[in-house]
Structures are given as C-alpha cells and as structure tokens.
Write a structure and sequence with these properties.
With 133 residues, the protein is mainly beta. The chain has one helix at residues 29-35, and strands spanning 3-6, 13-16, 21-26, 40-44, 50-54, 59-65, 68-73, 79-84, 87-92, 106-108. The structure holds zinc ion (ZN) (2 copies). One zinc ion binds at residues 26, 28, 30-31, 40, 109.
Length: 133
C-alpha cells in the first residue's frame, strides 16, 4: 500500500510504503496545542517506510522533551509527524490524501481531555496510554 500526504500549503509532501497501525485519538494537552483542536489523530508507522517527496527543508521539529519531536511545516504550520530520537514514528492522519487504510482503535489520555469536548463514539477510551502504547 502506498499512502501519500502533505501540508496545507502543499510545499511538504511525503509517502509511506506500508501499513499504518495503532491509530489513535490523543487528548493530551500537548496534542491539543500542537493541533489547535480538541484532540489529534495519528498513526504509527515503520520509519523505514517513510520518505519525504518534497519540502523536507521546510519541516521544523519542536522537541517538547529530549528526543520527543513534533514535526510541522514552517511555511503553513501543518502538524505532520512525530519523531522519536530523530526517527519518524508517527504521522498525523489529517494530512493524508484520501483513505489512510486504518481507523482509530483508541482514545488515549482522556484523563486530560478538553472540558469543552465530549467523546460520543464507541471507540475504547484510556485515561493515559492504551495497552499497545
Ligand atoms: Zn506547508
Ligand atoms: Zn497527545
């Protein structure tokens, strides 16, 4: 499966040549700020299957703690990837073109979710991490 995606301004494009997995809605306060939304939706990937197609030089990585990075387009601000010690381990589902071939299987960090947002679906909820991390 080949999955492609990109940022709002179109400068940054990427490709994933494999399956996404462990797709989750994260309600932690950091995701809320990074996305400017009630929660973020992202999926894990095999770092070897990820490649930038264009605009890699525009991708800035903010480290919230040593080794834990949040990659975004410095031109338009789109939240793109999560990094762990420089490796791309997460992709934001909202930046993917079309159907990413995966569905969220958990809400995580619901213990810190936004007070103004109610979860109304039947996807399992975890106060912190899910069992799969
Ligand atoms: Zn952009
Ligand atoms: Zn989070």
């Amino acid at each position: 499966m080949i999955i492609q995606g990109g940022c709002l301004c179109g400068s940054v494009r990427f490709e994933i040549t494999g399956q996404l997995y462990d797709t989750h809605h994260c309600h932690c306060s950091m995701c809320r700020r990074h996305h400017g939304a009630a929660f973020s939706t992202s999926a894990r990937l095999n770092p070897d299957e990820f490649s930038w197609l264009s605009g890699e030089d525009l991708v800035k990585v903010y480290e919230s703690s040593p080794g834990i990075g949040w990659g975004f387009c410095s031109e338009c601000g789109s939240s793109l990837v999560g990094t762990d010690n420089g490796e791309i381990v997460l992709v934001t589902l909202g930046t993917i073109d079309g159907d990413p071939g995966t569905r969220a299987d958990s809400h995580i960090f619901t213990g810190s979710k936004a007070e103004w947002h109610d979860i109304t679906d039947n996807v399992p909820q975890f106060k912190e991490r899910s069992n799969t991390g």
